[in-house]
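Good morning,

Attaching, inline, the backbone tokens for the sequence recovery test we're adding to the shared suite. The designed sequence is right after.
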């Protein structure tokens, strides 16, 4: 299991086309409720004939932010670039110059055996050549995962490659929309992606292979307006968190506070996690009632859960027991 709050704090990852003209000014003006992270996308949101222009716009946005930070105080999200291919990465670093210091790393779409080595080599080259540390967030969304006959071998082969550079892997991400596209699925705002059983089965296998060693982030929720969008998002987040996802890709700023609330730790969980982590090695018993007297805590079987809860608490905070369901609209 990842042993730093850093890996748990990507949280709500706001996707934005890299050629969005106002993204830098919106961040400087703090128009988005934080905390959040930012993905500047050069892949699916950009037409094939617009990549060069989008790269130019991306560089201009980061240089604008870099200069603004010299004289202004504002929340700066962790920034990632979703690239199209490995060759784009070093070219962007050179283009950004000093503004590359604002980057946390790169998002690698459709990560599979055909491109994994190239992406990993490009990241290692960047970390060797440029100051600072840059992370990778591969997205597991390739249709090759659909084939049951080879899925498990494929996932373990990808994990073996990532394990060799594990310190550089900030999150594993899943591509809900790409996988839904392969089946012709699209959920409504009153439906969860976990009702789409072929896609949910892929998520289960990804979490089984990667979840014990990496932070894995949940799939995008498409709705940001209309009836039920916020309640539906929160319901899916509860399921995300229960099965082991941490964080979520978001496509609208209105989704950010809902993701953050979903990963806030309750006071009961926090108190129990601290008690488990602080259990004396000399204690006569490694089993005890919880702080509120409602459940059993066991040092040997709840230690990993407790560690994760404390990382989440540091990243998202602690609050009293949630009022269920919370009101967002």
């Amino acid at each position: 299991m990842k042993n730093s709050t850093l890996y748990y704090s990507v949280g709500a990852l706001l996707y934005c086309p890299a050629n969005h003209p106002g993204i830098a000014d919106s961040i400087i003006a703090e128009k988005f409720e934080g905390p959040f992270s930012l993905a500047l996308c050069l892949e699916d949101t950009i037409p094939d004939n617009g990549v060069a222009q989008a790269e130019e716009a991306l560089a201009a946005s980061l240089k604008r932010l870099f200069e603004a930070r010299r004289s202004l105080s504002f929340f700066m999200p962790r920034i990632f670039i979703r690239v199209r291919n490995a060759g784009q990465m070093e070219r962007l670093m050179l283009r950004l110059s000093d503004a590359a210091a604002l980057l946390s790393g790169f998002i690698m779409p459709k990560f599979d055996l055909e491109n994994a080595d190239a992406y990993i080599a490009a990241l290692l080259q960047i970390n060797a050549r440029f100051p600072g540390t840059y992370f990778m967030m591969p997205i597991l969304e390739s249709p090759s995962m659909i084939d049951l006959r080879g899925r498990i071998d494929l996932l373990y082969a990808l994990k073996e490659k990532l394990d060799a550079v594990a310190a550089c892997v900030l999150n594993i991400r899943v591509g809900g929309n790409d996988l839904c596209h392969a089946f012709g699925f699209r959920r409504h705002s009153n439906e969860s992606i976990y009702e789409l059983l072929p896609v949910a089965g892929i998520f289960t296998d990804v979490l089984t292979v990667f979840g014990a060693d990496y932070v894995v982030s949940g799939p995008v929720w498409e709705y940001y307006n209309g009836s039920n969008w916020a309640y539906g998002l929160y319901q899916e987040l509860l399921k995300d968190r229960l099965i082991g996802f941490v964080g979520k890709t978001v496509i609208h700023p209105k989704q950010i506070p809902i993701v953050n609330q979903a990963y806030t730790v309750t006071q009961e969980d926090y108190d129990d996690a601290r008690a488990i982590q602080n259990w004396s090695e000399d204690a006569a018993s490694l089993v005890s009632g919880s702080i509120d007297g409602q459940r059993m805590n066991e040092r040997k079987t709840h230690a990993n859960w407790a560690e994760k809860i404390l990382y989440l608490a540091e990243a998202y905070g602690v609050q009293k027991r949630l009022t269920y369901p919370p009101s967002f609209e």
